[in-house]
Amino acid sequence: NLSDKLQDVFKKISGKGKISEENITEAIREVRRALLEADVNLKVVKDFINNVKEQAIGQEVIKSISPGQQFIKIISDAMIELMGGENQTLATSEKSPTVYMMVGLQGSGKTTTSAKLALNLRKQGKRPMLVAADIYRPAAIKQLEVLGKQINIPVFSLGQISPVEIVTKSLVFAKENGHDYIILDTAGRLHIDVELMDELVKIKQVVNPTEILLVVDSMIGQDAVKMSESFNEYLNITGVIATKLDGDTRGGAALSIKAVTGKPIKFMAMGEKLDALEPFHPERIASRILG
Amino acid sequence: MHGKTKIDEDLLEEIEEILLESDVGIQMTDKIVGKLRELAKENRFLPEEVMPSLFDYLKSELSMEEERIIVDEDRLNIILMVGVNGTGKTTTTGKIAAKLSISDYSVILAAADTFRAAAIEQLEVWSQRANVPLIKHQENSDSAAVVYDAIKAANARKTNVLLIDTAGRLHNKAHLMDELKKIRRIIDSEAPNAKLEVLLVLDATTGQNGLSQAMVFKEAVNLTGIVLTKLDGTAKGGVIFAIKNSLNLPIKLVGVGEGLEDLRDFQPQIFIDALFS
Ligand SMILES: Nc1nc2c(ncn2[C@@H]2O[C@H](COP(=O)(O)OP(=O)(O)OP(=O)(O)O)[C@@H](O)[C@H]2O)c(=O)[nH]1
Ligand SMILES: Nc1nc2c(ncn2[C@@H]2O[C@H](COP(=O)(O)OP(=O)(O)OP(=O)(O)O)[C@@H](O)[C@H]2O)c(=O)[nH]1
Ligand SMILES: [Mg+2]
Ligand SMILES: [Mg+2]
Fold first, then answer.
1. Three-state SS at A250
2. Ligand 1 center to B65 CA (angstroms)
3. Where would I find the beta strands (DSSP E) of chain B?
4. Closest partner residue to A223 among B26, B171, B235, by Cβ?
5. What is the distance between the alpha carbons of residues B241 and B58, in angstroms, rounded to a whole number?
6. What is the mean pLDDT of chain A?
7. Quick one: three-class SS letters along B202-241?
8. What gap in Å lies between CA A264 and CA A181, rounded to an integer?
9. A36–B25: do the CB atoms touch at under 8 Å?
10. Which of A144, A166, B196, B240 could form a disulfide with A132 if both were Cys (CB 3.0 to 4.6 A apart)?
11. Measured from the CA of A114, which atom of ligand 1 is nearest?
């Protein structure tokens, strides 16, 4: 793994006191390889490495730990700083109901995550409701209804009519029935599908969500950047939820998405069960990426 | 005039970037670029020969026998769809069913995802769209039992093709991979003479994890091919080079959309052109 490779690289330079431009070149190459293998986007890798290089050069090699370990720590700290430290809770609107809008590519986990968020809110004593705004995918509405039943949370659906109309009416329903949180499950779509991306923009205009959460499959590769930039451009997303982290993917996409959109990763989904949702911990993703 | 052609380093770097950004992965990219350097040296390429040679090399890496799904008309054909969550197994099962049905084969679908919410209902819609019968049990029943019944039905009705949709599962979950192995055992014991295709449904947006997926699923149920889905997006699916290189698995089909007809045979030339477009 990277840690071992860096130990070898730095064996040659230990005792020389300082990390310098010359002795760091091979170490940087190993880090670049590790990040690319972990699915961090190529452009993000380049920027990140230059950044780390600046920080590392001139640093005194601390006597107590090996240079390899020190270098790993610099990288890990830089990653944690890049990904963390932001507002990672979900905001609440001053004007009830608060609307959370779930968006993302096909199959990323929006419907499952919508139910997880709803359960989370209910456990906090709130009165959430789910809205079935995916009118395209076969049995999508049924899927959300089944999940809603499992956790005893009402699912608002009007069948396969326009999603804009569904979400408009869901606001009325929420107010009339005392729901303080609305979670909108939308259909998966490609960021290059202009018509469907405009549909999301219309939904946003109509319900004014407090959070627009991009749900991302953690096994996504280089496409994470194009995709998240596009969703962000159309919608000005407020946060990201990384799913399927119970798999063995390294999850470098999380770093890429934070780096290019600047938007915080708020949650990590770690399983198919509806309680498998945790607040985002950057140090856990950093250690996965570094392998 | 010495006969040694040195490839333009800028061009090589550009090729390297395109491959990396297409999810080819650093190891496979190094192998490809290294091979290109070697070919350029051996054959003393002119600058305009570099790209065509690269394309030819990549095409040879991806092409292989058994690239198509061919129905054997003299016995039962079983197609088992497997893969991690959300990659497009159910949708692809529906598309394949439609394609086979239009070509006048008799088809039965088996709803062996008995776990996920509304999975059976979802496949039911596809069976109606493709106009083929569906074998299903109750939600939360035993998936192996569905497979068993489906094979019985297919044999009884002398069906050409039985398509089995399974639940998505992460390959690092041993108990879920065990369930899949059990399904495989049932197929082997109840339909020993059937022609079996085991297709890994892989999302084109997947990064390097695609290689582990292919390795683990292959080890568990012995894959015969791959369906690469969601190629209508911007992801290039470059991880298939590493998969082909390590496991020699053919890409048989590609998914290019969410509709019934959005299924194509894999064409290496088209795939490679798309990488560099
Ligand atoms: N292992 C695991 N599976 C997950 C996780 N989140 C979702 N899934 C599974 O991923 C698959 C897709 O989830 P969905 O919730 O249907 O995804 P979606 O984004 O709503 O899909 P579309 O509506 O078709 O775009 C299902 O099999 C889920 O059970 C997770 O954190 N871990
Ligand atoms: N754009 C695009 N979307 C696709 C393609 N294939 C499937 N999808 C979409 O991807 C999402 C997931 O498809 P499913 O067929 O439910 O995937 P699955 O593998 O059966 O999911 P699980 O059973 O939950 O593991 C749906 O929204 C599909 O419409 C494709 O080729 N292109
Ligand atoms: Mg959904
Ligand atoms: Mg399915």
1. coil
2. 34
3. 77-82, 107-112, 134-135, 161-166, 195-203, 225-229, 251-255, 263-265
4. B235
5. 8
6. 93
7. EECCECCHHHHHHHHHHHHHCCCEEEEECCCCCCCCCHHH
8. 21
9. yes
10. A144
11. 15
Shortest alpha-carbon distance between residue A42 and chain B (Å): 6
Contact residues, chain B, for A145 at CB < 8 Å: 118
* Banded pLDDT at B2 (limits 50, 70, 90): very low
Residue among B81, B84, B90 to mutate when testing ligand 2 (max atoms within 8 A of CB): B90
Question: Which tokens is A117 given?
Answer: 């968020």
Q: DSSP assignment, residue A264? A: P
> What is the average per-residue pLDDT within B31-37?
95
A-interface mutation test, from B16, B22, B209, B212, most A Cβ less than 10 A away: B209
pLDDT digits (tens, 9 = 90+) for A45-102: 999 999 888 888 767 666 567 777 888 888 999 999 999 876 689 999 999 999 999 9
Q: What is the pLDDT of residues B153-184, one digit of tens each?
A: 999 999 999 999 999 999 999 999 999 999 99
Q: What percent of chain A has pLDDT over 70?
A: 94
Determine the number of helices (DSSP H) and then strands (DSSP E) in chain B.
Answer: 10, 8
| Token pair in block for residue A228 | 């998240």
